[in-house]
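Title: [Solved] MOR1A protein 3D structure

Original question kept below for reference.
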Amino acid sequence: GNSSVLTCPPKANMTMVTWKISPQVGGPCTLGYRADQNKTDRTNCSDSMNWKSRPDWDPALEIRQVGIALEGNYTCEVVATEGNFHKTYHLTVLVPPRLTLYCDDHGNPVCEAAAGKPPAQVSWVLESNSTPEEEGHDNGTVTVLRKFTAYSTNVTNTTCIVSHPAGTWSLSIAC
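Solution (posted by the thread starter after getting help):
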């Protein structure tokens, strides 16, 4: 959902700049700029992708509302009098999971990290003999669910730890 800017090093005497974009979802697109005509062109690019400012000053690409569908390769090619210059980015999108901690029908705590990318690591502060269950979704996200099953029955308050590249969270519940 955030914006992202991919830089493309400007060169003296640029004659042309082209962004070649190959997202994992949908077809490729290109943004082009020709200095001799001071003209920009776009082919098959969504409105969320555009020049950050004027391509003759700064050939950076701005992507608004980054989402999983925009993951892929982004290559900037600058043509100048001293040669052609390329810079390639591989865009990967992190999706923080939605967290839920609840008590199931048997009074066991259940910790759920829903629709995260990559899958979150879910664990309990106290020892538990449970294993996580994972469910993949069509958009590339994964839900991880882990029930707390204690070795002893005198546990009243349990804490779940969720670790993910987007952050680490802890949730506590008494069932």
